[in-house]
Structure formats: C-alpha cells, structure tokens
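DATA SHEET
Item: assembly model
Revision: 1
Owner: S.N.
Input lines:
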Amino acid sequence: MSENKFENVSSVVDNYQQTDELFDEILNDSHLSATWQRYHLMGDVMRGDTSDVINLDLSSTIASAIADEPTILAPRANNNVVDKLKAKVVQFAKPFGQMAIAASAAGLMVMGVQQNSADNDVLLPETQVVKTMPFGGVAEPVSLNFQQTSRTSEKQAFIEQQRRFQALLSDHHQQVKLSSVDVNSTTEQDKAAESAK
Amino acid sequence: MKLISSLLLLVTISTSVAANENEQAEPWLERLAQSLQTLNFSTSFVVVKNNQAEPYHWFHGVDESGNELEILSLLNGPRRDVLRKHNTVSYIEPEAPPYSVSSQQIAGPIPAVLREGVTQLAKTYDFISVGRSRVLGRPAQLIRIVSKDVYRYGHWLWLDQKTGMLLKLALANRTGQLLEQIQFTHLDITDDLSESLMQLQQTALPAVIEIPDGYQEQVLQWQVKWLPEGFTRLNANRHRMSSTKKPVEFMLFNDGLVDVSVYVNQSEERQRATDYVMDGATVVLNQVINGFEVSVVGKIPAKTAKAIADSVIFTPKELP
C-alpha cells in the first residue's frame, strides 16, 4: 500500500479534493475504508464529538448479528376466528383499560412528587440537570385518611424552594436586560466626552 | 499496546494542531462580529437544555441609512419577542407590559459580546481554533473560547467557513461535557431586508423607560469580596424581586461573556443549607446564614457560585 493512497484519503476527509475515482478507490479497498473510518474517528476525538463509549466496529457487529438471525420457516397460522372474537373483547374491555391507565397515571404523579422531595436533601452533582417546574398541576393525595403531615410539609418546602429558584432566575434575566442599558449609555457618554475633547 | 500508541499519536496531533492554528482563532471571531453586524440574515435556531428544546427565529438587517434592525422571537409557548431598531431594544413578554430600553444589545441566548468583538475577553479567555467539521450542511470551523482559570465554562463556536456566521454554539464544562447548546437549523443570507424587518421599520416601538441617574450605582450594605478575575460590576441597586416583591440588595457582575447576579436579603429562617439547581448552564444557588439569604445566579460552575456566595460580607456604610 503506497503512502500516496493514505494521503488521498486524508485529503478527502478534509474536504480538500473529492473526485468520484477517489471515492470508488476507497470504497473498493477494505484497507483504505478502514483508514477512512480511523481518520474520521481521530477528527471526532480531537473535536470532542464522540460519545463516552466508542464502538469501533459497529457495522461489522450489525452485519454478523443479521447473519446470525434465525430464518422463520413455519407458515402463519390462520386465525381469523380468533381475530373476530378478540375485536369484540377489546371493545368491551377498552373503557376499563382507560380507567386503569388514568389511575396509574395519578399514581405516577404522586410518586413523582414524593420522589422529588425525597431527593431534595442530597446536594446534586454539578452535571445533573434539574428542571425547575411550574406548579399549576401538582397532584394531591387522593385517600381520605391521608395524614402524613411530615410528607406534605416536605412537599411544601420543595414547592417553596422551586418558587424561590424560579423567582431568582427570572429576576436575573430581567436585571441583565435592564443593565445592558447602563453599559451602553456609559459607553455613549464616554464617546461624547471623547469627541468633546 | 496498539490503542495506547494511537492515543499518544492523537494527543501529539491535537496539541500540534492547537499550537499551529492558535493565531487563526481571533480573525475568525472578528469575522463573526463583522457578519453579525453587517449581514442581512434570517435564521432559526434551537436552544437545547434540560432535555428540552426552545426554538427561535432571528432576523437581522441593515437599512439604507445604515441602522441595524433585529427581531428575535421565541416560537413555543407564550410570545416573547425582542425588537431592535438601531439603539432601541423592545421586550415583549407575558409578565410585563411591553417596554423599551436604549441599548444596542439584545439580551438573549446568544452572548452580545460575539457581535462586539472578543478582544476584551483576551485577559481571561484563550481562543483556540480546533479544526473543521460539518454543521448545518456547511463546512464549519470550530473555535473554542476557553477560560484561563477553572472558575468558568468554555464556549464552543462552529462558524460558517463561507460567511463567518454562527452555526452552532455550545457551553461545556472543563471535562468537555455539554451543558447547553444552540444549534442553528436554517440560515438565509440575502442582499435585501427580509419582509419582517421591513414591517419592523414601519412599527413604532413602545416608550423607552427612564432609569434614574445613580440607580445602578447605589451604596450597598453587603459586598462581594471574591470573584474570578476579569469580572467587573455593572450594577448595584436595591429593588423588589419581580415576582415575589421581596426587597433585595442586588449586584450584577460581568466578565464580558457571562453575567452573574448576587442577591442578599433578610430571611425568616435562621440557617438553611446551600442548595442549587441548574437551568442548562445557568446555576441558581441559595443559602441562608445567620438570618440572611445570599443567592447567586449565572452561567458559572456551582463551585464558583458557592465561593462567591461565601465571600459576601456585611460592610455597614453611611447612606448618602
């Protein structure tokens, strides 16, 4: 393999020259294709575009996985009758299904809130991104004899904290908007002063 | 063994590249500033943070008399528009009636310093040209604005090789983890003003609000004793928080690229442990010590925010 060919690959990767012959040559030569892949990987690593896990040979893994896939030889069962029956059962069962989903969704919301408030005491790692939430739709506990006051006060504290953060964030944005005025008006005054001199 | 040697090779290549192209980074940023000020462009971008995407439209142009026109609007949720005619900027937001301020900068997701030129940042940041890649279907140059100390995030900019326009912007911490990204999704550069800007020319902007003299240079009872190098104070005032109406002592600092707000106010609580959340790259940190609440907000690492909050001290001064 001559040095020249590698140089060609390098220049194609860098967008310096791109001709059909060069592409054909790279595509038809497995050694050059591998070089092409490596050059791109180097570029990605240098720019920091790679994910944490670099799977070096994805395409061949996929190819072999497809090759290993069993072929299904058995004929499809003819189950028209079952389908008809099923359709009726589904129609009948649908409303219950929706109820069940709604109930489980409510469960999730309550869980979610409790989960959040439980997590609160832990100082979050720097990289963890926490979204501040609007508090229109916080789920209330449904049960009549729900008496865990500590939990509700915890929740209150959580809501209070989120409000505080939200207020700080929006005030910060507003002050930045108003302060860009000051910077500019002073620079304009400076300019005026300079021109007066 | 093979892996190690190839890694070594990569490291040597990347360092030599950085050294070679170091001088080239600043011309790229100057070209960006030039493009942002002079081109007629109509573009869309998406701010990606907290697993959420905020889409924006952004128009910019220069009319016959050389005045700049600019529109920036958020496309999702309640209307948030920023309009600019030369040195008047109007904010149209759901929280407040529309108002204007006299400024040449739009306070938005894209740092204003990029259009002002970056020479003022050279004391605290290094500019590094990293290499080429493909962004928005165009060949792009990646430039990194890297802090010289450990107290700040880095900004990565992908610039169009043909026009010098911004194609992508990312904020990353020192380990290279992305905290917030702005990805452009469409870019049109035209000779004439776009229709939206022609309409803006005909529109009367809301009245400019007057800020009383000295309002932003008040003498405060509380002082910040430590900040990373390069931060200067833009603003010191007493005001009521826009949403909770709580009175606060407020200071705003800026290092040319990022804004940091410091709030001090009395609290009903005696002590509260330090707590913070991240909104993309923006940290909101808050603690109560001896009945006083100190909060720090800005696009800085949480450790820096904590150090700033801890440095706040009481220095009683005679009020003028």
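QC remark: Residues 2-21 of chain B form the longest helix (20 residues).
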